[in-house]
């Protein structure tokens, strides 16, 4: 059968990767890794075919030559274009990891085995602006042919709980704890998944929110695709085993719509509320990306100016800035926001550097380039990297008026990343803001950016990766981790301050309606 073999090969990839990380090169590693590889013939075939070369049948294995060629081309792309490749791993570590993965692809393998190898590579490199996505033809195949766990999960600490049940087994109730899935406990499952998920430096290493959001598809992509799931649940202090039939994504989506129609998201990315009688204001920023904000009929600069003008006019003492779910966007918007919290100029982005400015050897595989334009000025350094000398967000000046000097409370979560993570890191350095939430999945010392998108010629898998390295002037001891907050959750803070204006207002008038 197809799926059991996928499971075994995935574990082979994992064991080889762990060998590489912990013990150096695996046995015979150098013998199966071709260090004289040239991508030219593969790129020519891709051009001639006007797209991916292979017409994949996802039930069948792919020949090793095709898999190794695509992986070698990914390695070439990262080495040539991504200045963050050795940011959190040494060149020796990355070279060893690459060789190990190439050797693991020495036999024919299924498409999902190759995906697992790519996912572990991006996870090991730990550049949060680099990753992969399925070939387009895989999505309709997955939606009808791949069977998935018919549950939504809530992860609290190291425990799994049922959030929603889409199976026909009515014995499974919301809030019920799951102690095992197909023989694995939550710790084992989360550990396996975390080695394949999004990762930026060493931030948010358990990736709990990421795993919770994508659990069903992640389990399918990275662990197994069984026809049935053996679930062990805890009921009234005893354990009970139940069997669930796996369902297709299309079936689960259909059931999901009948159980609970999709709730409407906030209509705007920027929302402001104030309560003058409580001396409190709330500013939710769901995204820093101008294209998304403007599509909602808003302008970040104008809206932010109006927020702080209203706060000043009403004489409010407490400001809550909600960045939960804000995955980034334009650094200039973070700089604009920070200007209202400063009394003196500060450095914002320390430097932005590139490995190469266009003319890549894999040019014909690029779907979306690095986004350079004629206004950008560069100087080449002694180490051959290019510095963007006129980057517009190198410094932040205090706002001319309506600067806020009261208590700032900033809400973050694992999704507070990229430009929102940069703002959070610098607000921690330059202001007295109180931070509430889990560690965000965003390394504090800087980010990747200017993302390029390309396609691997044989499998058609799409990959994206940073071509720029953004650095901040942060304590070297803190650069790789996410932001250490003052309180893990809003509930924890409110439990300690139940009579505070924030706790009272949040419970009575804000609540879940403001959670993005």
Automatic annotation (TrEMBL):
SUPFAM superfamilies: ClpP/crotonase. The keyword Signal applies. Residues 1-26 form the signal peptide. GO terms for biological process: proteolysis. Keywords: Signal. It comes from the Bacteria. One of its GO terms (molecular function) is serine-type peptidase activity. Gene3D superfamilies: 2-enoyl-CoA Hydratase, Chain A, domain 1 (3.90.226.10). Residues 293-477 form the Tail specific protease domain. This is Tail specific protease domain-containing protein. It comes from Croceimicrobium hydrocarbonivorans.
């Amino acid at each position: 059968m197809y799926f059991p073999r996928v499971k075994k090969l995935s574990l082979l990839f994992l064991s080889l990767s762990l060998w590489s990380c912990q013990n150096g090169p695996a046995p015979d590693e150098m013998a199966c890794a071709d260090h004289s590889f040239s991508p030219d013939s593969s790129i020519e075939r891709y051009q001639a075919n006007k797209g991916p070369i292979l017409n994949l049948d996802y039930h069948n294995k792919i020949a090793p030559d095709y898999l190794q060629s695509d992986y070698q081309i990914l390695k070439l792309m990262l080495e040539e274009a991504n200045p963050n490749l050795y940011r959190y791993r040494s060149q020796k570590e990355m070279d060893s990891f690459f060789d190990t993965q190439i050797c693991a692809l020495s036999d024919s393998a299924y498409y999902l085995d190759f995906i697992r190898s790519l996912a572990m590579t991006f996870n090991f490199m730990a550049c949060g602006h680099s990753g992969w996505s399925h070939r387009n033809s895989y999505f309709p195949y997955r939606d009808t042919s791949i069977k998935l766990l018919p549950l939504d999960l809530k992860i609290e600490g190291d425990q799994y709980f049922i959030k929603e049940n889409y199976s026909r087994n009515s014995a499974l109730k919301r809030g019920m704890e799951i102690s095992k899935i197909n023989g694995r406990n939550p710790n084992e499952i989360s550990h396996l998944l975390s080695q394949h998920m999004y990762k930026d430096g060493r931030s948010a290493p358990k990736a709990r929110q990421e795993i919770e959001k994508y659990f069903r598809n992640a389990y399918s992509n990275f662990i197994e695709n069984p026809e049935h799931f053996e679930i062990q649940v805890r009921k009234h202090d005893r354990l009970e085993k139940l069997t669930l039939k796996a369902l297709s994504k299309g079936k689960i989506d259909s059931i999901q719509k009948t159980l609970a129609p999709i709730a409407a998201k906030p209509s705007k990315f920027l929302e402001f509320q104030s309560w003058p009688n409580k001396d409190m204001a709330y500013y939710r920023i769901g995204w820093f990306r101008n294209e998304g904000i403007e599509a909602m009929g808003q302008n970040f600069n104008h809206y932010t100016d109006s927020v702080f003008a209203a706060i000043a006019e009403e004489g409010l003492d407490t400001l809550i800035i909600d960045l939960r779910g804000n995955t980034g966007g334009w650094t200039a918007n973070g700089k604009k926001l920070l200007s209202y919290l400063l009394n003196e100029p500060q450095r914002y982005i320390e430097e932005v550097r590139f490995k190469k400015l266009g003319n890549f050897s894999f040019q014909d595989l690029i779907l979306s380039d690095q986004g350079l334009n004629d206004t950008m000025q560069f100087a080449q350094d002694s180490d051959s990297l290019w510095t963007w000398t006129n980057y517009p967000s190198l410094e932040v000046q205090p706002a001319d008026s309506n600067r806020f000097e009261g208590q700032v409370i900033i809400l973050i979560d694992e999704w507070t990343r990229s430009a929102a993570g940069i703002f959070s890191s610098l607000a921690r350095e330059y202001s007295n803001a109180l931070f509430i939430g889990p560690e965000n999945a965003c390394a504090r010392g800087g980010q990747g950016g200017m993302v390029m998108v390309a396609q691997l010629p044989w499998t058609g898998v799409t990959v994206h990766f940073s071509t720029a390295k953004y650095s901040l002037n942060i304590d070297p001891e803190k650069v790789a981790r996410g932001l250490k907050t003052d309180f893990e959750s809003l509930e924890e803070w409110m439990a300690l301050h139940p009579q505070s204006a924030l706790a009272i207002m949040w419970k009575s008038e804000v609540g879940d309606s403001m959670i993005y």
